[in-house]
Amino acid sequence: MDYVPITSKDQKEMLAKIGINSIDDLVDDVKPRCGELNLPSPMSEMELVQHVTALSEKNKIPRYFVGGGSYNHYSPAVIGHMVLRGEFLTAYTPYQPEVSQGTLQSIYEFQSYICLLTGMDVSNASLYDGASALAEAVLLSSSHLRRNRVFVSKGLNPKYLQVLKTYCEGAEIEISDKIDEETACVIAQYPDFFGNIEDLQTLADEAKKAGALFVTCITELTSLAILKPPANFGSDIVVGEGQSLGIPMSYGGPYLGFIAVKQDLLKKLPGRIAGLTTDDRGNEGFVLTFRAREQDIRRERATSNITTNQALLALSATIYLAAMGRDGLIDVAKASYKQAHILHEKLKEVGFEPLNDKPFYNEFVVKTPKPPEEILSSLLKKNILGGINLGENKLLVCCTENNSAQDIEDYVSAVNG
Amino acid sequence: MDKMKLIFDYDDNITGHVPSESIDLDLPKHLMRSDLPLPNVNEVDVVRHYTDLSRKNFGIDIGIYPLGSCTMKYNPKVNENLARLKGFSQLHPMVPASFSQGTLELIWKLQQHLKEITGMDEITLQPAAGSQCELLGLMMAKKYFKDKNEERKKVIIPDYSHGTNPATSSMCKFQTVTVQSDTRGNIPLNKFREVLDSDVAVVMITNPNTLGLFEENLSEISDLARSNGTLLYCDGANMNALLGIGKPEEQGFDMVHLNLHKTFSTPHGGGGPGGGALCVRSFLADYLPVPRIVKESDEKFSMDYDKKKSVGKVHSFYGNFGMLLRAYSYIMSWGSNISRVSKNALLNANYLQSLLSDVFEQPYNRKCAHEFVLSSKNLGAKSAMNIAKRIMDYGLHPPTIYFPLIVEEALMIEPTETESKESLDNFASVLKKISAELVKDPDFIKKSPHTTKLGRLDEVKAAREPNLRWLPKFKV
Amino acid sequence: MSEIQFTKEHEWILMKDNIGLVGITDFAQKQLGDIVSVELPSVGNEFKQNDAMAIIDSVKASSDIYCPIDGKVVAVNEELLQSPELINKSPFDSGWIVKLEPSDTSQLENLMAEEEYKKFVGED
Fold first, then answer.
1. Residue A254, preceding bond cis, omega within 30 degrees?
2. How far is residue A63 from each of residues A255, A372, A394, A417, measured CA to CA in Å?
3. Taking 90 as the threshold, does the pLDDT of residue A52 lie above it?
4. Angle at A348 (CA atoms; ends A343, A349), nearest 5 degrees
5. Which of C58, C59, C62 faces A298 most closely, judged by CB atoms?
6. DSSP E strand stretches across B245-325
7. Is the ipTM of this complex over 0.85?
8. Phi and psi for A185 in degrees, rounded to 5?
9. Does B465 touch chain C if contact means CB atoms closer than 8 Å?
10. Which residues of C touch B459 (CB under 8 A)?
11. Predicted pLDDT of residue A302
12. How far is CA C30 from CA A216, B381, C26, C91, C92, in A?
């Protein structure tokens, strides 16, 4: 399992052509040279598989009732097979469009799907994850309006807030609790971290009054199968996380950030964008476009340094949406909603106090009759991860179509003892 | 005329309208959508559509992909199997530590190996890409100087740098000071001294640089930076030249980032996902993002959030674990033999350069590292573009063109160590053919590619008449 | 009636009623190639001579446009947002970029007259 095809015969011929005696002549310029690396002995493929499989077996996979930014949806088999095709998997960024139409078209389709789900006019080819996408929206707003403050509403995922704080500290942007003429953007999560679905029109209007942009952040994208699209209540920018669309939870990454904007902000979008055009023979084809926005051309005048998009995951999400179709996606959303509401009702019956004051999608908060650590511990004994402990006796619980009626029964009986 | 078939074209009935009664949920109507214009497509069509798309793509699995500074090496298939082990792929990021010991151990071990490879004291695997590492590194530098009560506002960057370096500097509100490289491709010490004042926070150097050359003045530069209290950052995109040969720590760097999707073989996937590692000296470790993955005892790994000086987080969870897994597997398969990767990368690049040195101009008269830059300016204006387009007619992928910016009609070529001698000989002979064609029949070459399904695409039209998404035919 | 003047960075400025009309030259638009996007300053922004005041993007490049003399922006050519190609088609006329209210007209003396500019770009 040696990925170096050069034989010793090849090497002799190559050294002769270069005009040197040994490979070591090629590293003369490197000072200092390092000694032997203290790494384990090389492994054969078989040994490697045994070793890594053994590591994977040290993990335990429970039944999941947990969300908080990563969701346990079912991923159709089609996706895995398509993305393993070498032409998708081992391709580079499509800078030479004539030999990258596969990647480019799938990006165009991804951009289209994001626009259809969110109701926005234009989307980019994806960003690293939901949290950094939100940070990019803030940088965009700040540079567009030349304002240095942002307002974050209370329901934002706390991990996203942490990432936002980090980016804002570097970019010298203030996170404020007021909306005024210095506010670049107003941010709200939809549904929010606690699962609440709020009519954001009022907040959007407040943003507009202050001349600020309204940014909606979505962490559970399947919700848009049934919820009102954020464009309809005045979002200027919609960002979020696409992991729900058939991407494995994989301990938090790689995930799929997205950003979509109204037409007038198109030229401010960070990252890559695919567009349709024609070739010199009259055929339709795709290219990366508005390239001059990007870091390799703008350099210090770029508003974002972003390079990599999550191309293979954007492809996965696109295939998920194609394979599920409109009807399948609505089914996933309905089932996620229903299972969450069934569990919610049953937990009410055994002493959990509902805390959502608004309708919720597939996540909800309850006050626990015993300390959450105890509740979660009894659930773990049944190999169930029952939720996220929010402190103050509050538990954030999530369901998806992957939670069966039996799972719900087992959850309730585990906590009702 | 070939019209594109989009996935949306498979469903004639995208009415979009979804009567809310059919979504019989107890949600107030004003919170629900009334239309969802997505196509329903049967599985056979899904498979055929995306299979067809894949066949319009070029990948490493098809042939040589010699893009400079991208390190398009072979992506081992076994790593794809390992990434799909249920124990890894089905783990939610918020399971308790007792459920994720395998994952935490893998991350920790990868950290150890990358520290060994770079010589650095501490590391984070949270960034999603090299450019995010740069952002993190500059944010850490900013906080480091703030804590020392020093307000330093400048970052020095050589003219050959990747565009991410100055872009990152701007994102952190630093002023970028560019220093011109010399005729050997080095940063000249006199020019460096001129710009190195007490206002300089960081110097960002790529080594070997984007010209494919090892920086010969590195030791003096690092001494000067150190005496000036300036941090030295290594853009480690070109680490494929240094595995087991040189360590950035020993070269005087305070921070170095690694691109897991370049040096460590994780697949590029058409533009991502990638994975970044930022390795630092111990005096900067406290600024690294949380959580830190630590080993408590022989069998126990955990996450440490208690780092008061940390800059915070750059990723919603802990980084791109799926890519960390692949990089770890790659390192474990090479093990202590990993210097063979770099030695062969250097051999392949120097060999290919020697085959082409009489066809193109070599702007720097030196042995190259793992990549090299040639200039086709002897063949006229726009020759690099025309050569690149013509290469596709031969079933190969072009190298990087027009970068670095300081070389006219630049062709930046990185074969990597996974190309055979036959592949290199073939690539060189194709380039020789094309340069002869460009002299003999320039008009024909200027209109290439000819044999690909698509000809040159109109990028002006794409920007002037933007069509960036499918629109449903009906009014939504 | 004043005369059009030029900068070394290929901007032109034409004074009329104490307002300077500013754009880029035919030479510059040819160098840039097909222009696809323009980032304009806001009305009210003040710039010093040689400050970057606008950005022009072509398909493969991005260029700063520099302020020819100290002044305040009193108007921007909003048509360029929809039709950036006006700069290519008509760089001295409908492709104008900003109108400046100068704070120091003596700086005009440092700029080049038409003949001098033509020599500068080698168009003799």
1. yes
2. 21, 18, 20, 19
3. yes
4. 100
5. C62
6. 255-259, 276-280, 292-297, 300-304
7. yes
8. -155, 155
9. no
10. 59-60
11. 82
12. 42, 15, 6, 10, 13
